[in-house]
Every structure is written in C-alpha cells, then in structure tokens.
Records
---
Amino acid sequence: MQSDSELVQVALHGDRQAYGRLFERHERSVLAVALAVLGDYHAAQDVTQEAFVTAYVRLGSLRRRASFGVWVRMIARHEAISVRRKARQAQNAGLGGPEPTELPNDGTVDEQTRLLLDAVMRLPSHEQEVLTLHYFEGHPVKGISEITGRPVGTVTMQLSRARARLRRWLKENLR
C-alpha cells in the first residue's frame, strides 16, 4: 500500500489514478468533517467534492505530503464554515430556505452524532488523523502506520490518547 506522501508525489506528476486513491482513502473522513459543521448530508457531500477539487488544484503547495489527509480535512472544514455562513446570511436577508438544523431528517445529523464529530475535530491533528483513518475509513493500525509513515506503536498510542480525550470531552459536555 502506498503512503499518502507517495501518492501525492505520483499525482503531482500527472497520475490521476493516484489522486483517485487519495480521494478513496480520505473521502469518508472529509465527509464527516463537513457533516459535523453543516449537519446536512447532501450539503456535506457537495463540500467534500469541493474540498477535493481545491486540494487537487493546490496540491503543489502542500509542504508535508504525508499530511494530505489532515490538509484536505482542513480545507473541507473551512469550506463548510463558509457554506454555513453564506446560508445564514441568506436566511437573515430573507433569501434562503430553512436553517441547516431545520432540514428534514433525511439530510440531518442527530445531536449526539454532531457532538461526537465536533469532539473529533477538537483533537490534535495527528490524533484526529489516526482516529478518522481507523473509525471512519476502517483502516487497521498497521494500515494506518503505512499510510502515515509512523511506527505501529506510535499509531496505537495516538489512537489510545485520542479515545481518552474524546471520553473526557464527551463526559464533560454531556452532563
């Protein structure tokens, strides 16, 4: 399995299939980030697509190629915040439809899921990365080690710390 760094390098030389593998590897975690901000599945899908297009256009500016996943999730978060802000401005001006939290249930996220996704986004980026690769994308620890270029023991420790931080944060905020 090629690491993100290797796939970015190959994609920079014009290999669209390499970028496609990056997309497949990170799509679910990027979608989760957008969903946490927007609460609307369909809007989050649009933001996910936009984030990957933006990342592709800006791929040459990525300094740490191994950090592609963190970087594309950050792009998605910024895009989702922008979409949410524009929707609120349109709502306040009387131009838009309902607030995202008022959309029908087929496109919304329940409050517990939103809290969990928000908690994940508060983790340090290295813990967020391993947690999303493991739980959102289903990679085993060894696979995460190969993707990130970190030793298996480091990945295991980062997952453990991330789970502990999530438990603490959720206990404090679900009282």
Note: Confidence is low (pLDDT under 50) at residues 97-106.
---
Amino acid sequence: MIALALDSSGSACSVALVEGGGTVLAHRFRAMARGHAELLLPMLRDAMAEAEVGFDSLGLIAVTVGPGSFTGIRVGLSAARGLALATGLPAVGITAFEAVAAAVEPAGQAIVVAIDSRRSELFVQVFAAGGSAAGPPIAVAPADLAASVPSGELVLAGDGAGRAAAALTTAGRAVRLSGIASPDARDVARVALRQRIGGGALSPLRPLYLRAPDVTLPPAPGGVSP
C-alpha cells in the first residue's frame, strides 16, 4: 500500500509518498510561513512524477489536521478532501502532535510535543516512550506546564519546544531537545499507514484547533458592532 501525505499546518509545507513498509518513494519539503496554497499542489505533482506513481496506485490519503495555522490547516484539508472525493480513496487526518512524535527517535523517555500557539499558551500532548499518546492534547500556560507532564527526564519536540524547555528547566525539570520542530509529510504517512494496516478506524478529516480563531465580526446594520 502506498500513502500520499500532505502537511501545510505550520511553518513548512511538505508532500510524501510512502510505502506500507515505511520506504519513502518521493518527498518534498520547504520551510515557509505562508504561501502553502500556491505550493502544495505543485509539490504533489512533482512528487508523484518523481515516484512514477499515479492515483490508481495509491491506497490512502493522509493530511495533518492541526493544531497550527488556521489557513494552512484549511489548505491541507481542502486538498485531501478533494483528492479523496475525486479518487474514491480513504482519507485519514493525523494531528501535528502525532506526526512530530513519530519523528522522535525512541530513547526511553516520555515525549512532550509542544506547538507554539503564537499566543501566550502552548499546545501540548504527551507521548509515552514507545510513541503512544499518554494523554489528550491541551492548551497550557508555560508556567503551568511542569504540573501537566510526567515526572522524570522528558524529550521535547515541536516548534514550541524552546519555550517549553525554558519553563520546565525553571521548574527544576530535566529535559532534552529532540531537534524535531515541524510536522513532515513522511511522518504523517507513516502514522496513517499504521492506522490503516492495523485495521482500526481511520481518524477523520476534522481540524484540531485547541483555541478559537482570531476573527473580527463585521458591524451590525446601522454601524453598531454586536
């Protein structure tokens, strides 16, 4: 089985084609703060051309569902939904936490994936040393992080790992930075393939935000804001 995976949820854009055994057939990755909508589909086209794979050879479509950039999440979800509708392929949503945790080399410590919310709080999920989720995703203030994670040395990943490390070391906790910052479509594909091959229910294509979007409501008729 070959999975096509997309990620445009954060500060990078990537596409990967990965076989069921984990072999990467093609991969595109570019760090970028914006412009995902313009780049994602050309990257997809180039990756499929490199792998010499058509849609009829695919078994699964996977996409990162967040948390991250609201715009980037919508870009990826729209692309995945459109491809699934056009091809009839099953599609699975993988969280940014799952994708980042899957990229961390196991070392016997719990993994804390911290994603920068671009606000005061961090988006955090804890994974056991073996890579399985050890709790739900949460939004937490850095000052409260030490009380929300397991005891013992921790491995930190995600683009909020630096802020998390500062808060935890201030609280006297032992931490190690993994160096993994952004989700990558290769890891999105591998997580999705494990779900598919394991025979469990596929996670839906539903965005994971953890906080409400920043929006400004238009004035009500008569110029009075609601």
Note: Helices lie at 36-51, 70-87, 96-102, 161-170, 185-198.
---
Amino acid sequence: MNKKIGFVSSLAMSGAVAIFLICLVVALFAQNIFTENLSYGVCAVLSWAWVASACVHSCYAKSERSAAAKIGVALGVIYSTIISIVYFTQITTVLHKSVDEKILQAFSFTSAGSWLFNLDLLGYGLLALSTFFVGLTLHAENKADKALKILLMLHGAFFVCMFVPVLPLPATNQGNGGTIALIGWCLFFLPICILSCLHYKNLKETEKN
C-alpha cells in the first residue's frame, strides 16, 4: 500500500507540474483567465501530493534518519497549508471579487509584494526545506535514486525565495521575469517528480524498516 500511494502521489505531482508549466508558457504570450486559475488549482494539488509523497518516504527512512523524515513531513504540511489558502483564495474570493477592492489587492496573487504573494513565497521556501530533509532520508540503490536524492537536496537551495519579500518590490509585476523564473523552477522540479515515480515503481516493499 505504501508503495502504491507513493507512486500515485508522484504521478499526481508530475501531472500537476506539467500542467503548470503549460499554463506558464501560455502566460508568456497572452493573459488567459482559465489557464491562470487552472495553474492555481494544480499547484494546490501539487502541495497535497507532495505531503503524501513525503509521508511515504518517511515510512522507508532508516531509524537514524527518522528525525529528518519527520521534519520533511512537518515542513511539507506547513507548505501545503499555506499554498492551499493562497490558491483557494485566488479561485474563489479573488476570481469572484467578493470583497472590497482594497482588500482584493492584498489577496491578489498577481500583485507582487501583496500579502498572499509573500505567503506564496514563504510556502515554496518551506517546500524547498522539506525536499532537502526528505532527500537526506532517501536510501539510493541505483543511479536514478542517486539522481533523485541529489535533486531533492539541491532543491533545498530554493528556500531563499522566502526571503524575497524582505526586499523592496514594485507594486505590480513587470514583464515576464517572474513567469520565466517559474518555468525554470518547473524544469528543475519535474525531473524530481518523474524520478520519484520510478523510485516507487521499482521499490520493494521489503525495504521498509
């Protein structure tokens, strides 16, 4: 059962990141409300799938690495909670403009430096830390697993994004710089998702401690 949950959650992550990437490419050429809100939805799904995957990784962690596994899960849960609030707000309150305009500006993810924009960066910073600790627990038996372990730990460097709100930012996004940066992130994270699928597909249940 653990193996199946790990594989399905990794498959869901792969699909979510792939759809998000497509939405970002579309955003480079035209503003599209459907793909914009679709990207919010799939990123919420990504966060839930990551928590499931992190939990499965913790089931196979060796006893001396159990603390790192628990930290990875805990950080993943916090990340998912923040991200769920941010994106659910986008596809409900912001989409339907059900609050005052001034409040809407604070809630709108499209306004760089807004409250929920900053929360989003905090969430992904915590995801980065979560992947780092999960990477510490991974027991690599083959080249694919070794690559997964390295990518998970390297992804930990993205934790610096949570400090971006400390820097002075313009009131609104300018140009496609942010979109291009997110495309780069997708191209980095998608291999993690695919390698996770392979990891769970080839994993033997007897390897569980």
Note: Residues 66-96 form the longest helix (31 residues).
---
Amino acid sequence: MDNLVVMLASLFVGGASTGAGAVIWGTLLPRLIPMEMIGRVASLDFFVSIAFMPVSIAIAGLLALIVPVETISIVAGIIPPFLALAALVAGRMRHTEILQRLCT
C-alpha cells in the first residue's frame, strides 16, 4: 500500500468494527449463556477463531494473486462496519437489552 492515509483509514475502520463486535459478543455472552457454561462457550469460541485463522490467511494469500492488494485493504476496511451492523441487528441486541431489563 503506497497511500498512508488510505491505509490508516482502513486500519481505523477495521479496528473500530472489530472492537464493536468484541463488545457485542462480550455483552451477549454473560446475558445469554448460563454461568456454568460460559467457560465452555468462550473456549469453543476461542478455539474456532484460532482454527480458522490459517484458513483466512490462505484465502487472503490466494486472493492477493487475483485482486490487487490495495483493493483487498480497502474492502477489508469497508466490510467490517457492515458486519458489525448486521451482528447488531441479527443478534437483536436491543431486544435482548429490553428483555434483560424487564427480567431484573
């Protein structure tokens, strides 16, 4: 990447989106999973994340042979906010929050 501004913007947006996903997951986990199962669920989540990391690196490497790296970087900076929004909507965070308040 030869454009520092585009690279920094992509990293910022991607990092912020990843952070948003982590906050959503960290909030939902103790609210939706029984306390005696949280350790198992968190371990499974971590295992799956680590297991698929080499797969994502392999896909990115193969994709870099076809698509310019600049395009991959821009897309990697644009897609995460939409995924975070989709997780927010699909995870029904607002519904879960309202339900949690009613139960306490």
Note: DSSP finds four helices and no strands in the chain.
